[in-house]
Design goal:
By secondary structure, the chain is of the alpha+beta class. It folds into three domains: 110 residues, Translation factors (Elongation Factor Tu (Ef-tu), domain 3); 109 residues, Rossmann fold; 90 residues, Beta-grasp domain (Ubiquitin-like (UB roll), Roll). The chain is 17% helix and 33% strand. Strands 1, 2, 3, 4, 5, 6, 7 and 8 form an eight-stranded antiparallel β-sheet that branches. The longest helix has 14 residues. The structure holds FE2/S2 (inorganic) cluster (FES). The site of FE2/S2 (inorganic) cluster has 13 residues, from loops. This is Ferredoxin. GO terms for molecular function: 2 iron, 2 sulfur cluster binding; metal ion binding; oxidoreductase activity. Keywords: 2Fe-2S, Flavoprotein, Iron, Iron-sulfur, Metal-binding, Oxidoreductase.
Length: 335
């Protein structure tokens, strides 16, 4: 297997990227292709757990994150599925247009911010649209582990739902429930009703578009702490309730704890950009608070987090340098 090593001298991190072969491209549903990536020599790939994603490096320096959707027991391949989003930032369109069978593609090793927690007695998986990808890997992992689960997959219609063939045994066994709303969410799955009464030891995982995420979050408010898990595949719009702006829009100072270097972060800059401009290496990938690549510990200061991945417990210790802002005048980073 061909690997490249990229060093991050500040964080002391060495990140390996993998060079993989596109072995198969499959039509999975309207606008959705899956891509099977394998080692060119047939070697086993680094292991992953359900919920992991890959950074895919496209031409022109474009890097995008996609969840791995096959079973973690499969060591010979990673499968990702990509919905072509005409209104997105261009990554999915580029991927659909550029990636062909037999192409070589550079990807990160699997990273995971959305793991199944251990000890659940029962698991509920709720997918909206292309948010099905990490949950599909979870369903495979739960199947293999013999853990009781139920999956709900919401899509506009049958043609927009991916993995019909692969999902058929799961549907036939009663594990998977498909919900088609014809484009009107109020005509689809009643999420509030589904999440009404959590069972003892039950955990819920959900992933989907903005409105779906909001509906799930509201419906799961009364679930016990630590039992609700989710992943955004797109950052919520700035200015939405989840990203209410405050005085964190002002400039502030970041101090590098190991050197004492002080760097001003202007109101138009991210912490990561300001660090890079000052010569401090900071690895980034999604630049949207989605992947965790730029996660860094802070030692002093008040933070407006803005990421979509960390729990409240993590936020006491860490921030994401691509989207977090300081609400104090100085922020000390453990770099
Ligand atoms: S670069 Fe992805 S969270 Fe910051």
């Amino acid at each position: 297997m061909s690997t490249q090593i990229k060093s991050n001298p500040v964080a002391g991190v060495q990140e390996q990227t993998l060079t993989l072969l596109v072995r198969q491209v499959r039509f999975e549903g309207r606008g959705i292709n899956s891509y099977e990536l394998v080692d060119p020599e047939g070697a086993p790939l680094p292991p992953f757990a359900a919920g992991a994603h890959l950074d895919i490096h496209l031409s022109g320096g474009v890097v995008r994150q996609y969840s791995i959707c096959n079973a973690p027991r499969e060591r010979h391949r990673y499968v990702i599925a990509v919905l072509r989003d005409e209104r997105g930032r261009g990554g999915s369109k580029a991927l659909h247009e550029q990636l062909r069978v037999q192409d070589i593609v550079r990807v990160s090793r699997p990273r995971n911010n959305f793991r199944l927690v251990e000890g659940a007695r029962r698991v509920l998986l709720i997918a909206g649209g292309i948010g099905v990808t990490p949950l599909k890997a979870m369903a495979h992992q739960l199947d293999d582990a013999g853990i009781d689960y139920e999956m709900h997959y919401c899509a506009k219609d049958e043609r927009s739902a991916a993995f019909a063939e692969e999902f058929e045994p799961m549907r036939a066994s009663g594990r998977l429930h498909l919900h088609f709303d014809g484009g009107d969410p109020s005509a689809g799955l009643d999420i509030r009703d589904l999440l009404n009464a959590p069972a003892d030891g039950e955990h819920v995982y959900y992933c989907g578009p903005g409105g779906f995420m909001k509906a799930c979050a509201e419906a799961a408010q009364h679930w016990p702490a630590g039992t609700v898990h989710f992943e955004h595949f797109k950052a919520p719009e700035r200015g939405s309730a989840e990203h209410a702006a405050n005085d964190a829009n002002d400039s502030f100072i970041v101090r590098v704890a190991s050197t004492g270097q002080e760097i001003e972060v202007s109101k138009d800059q991210s912490i990561a950009d300001a660090l890079l401009e000052a010569g401090v290496t900071m690895e980034t990938s999604c630049c949207a608070g989605l992947c965790g690549t730029c996660k860094v510990r802070y030692l002093e200061g008040e933070v407006e987090h803005n990421d979509c991945i960390m729990s409240d417990e993590e936020r006491v210790e860490y921030l994401t340098a691509c989207v977090s802002r300081a609400t104090s005048k100085v922020l000390v980073l453990d770099l």
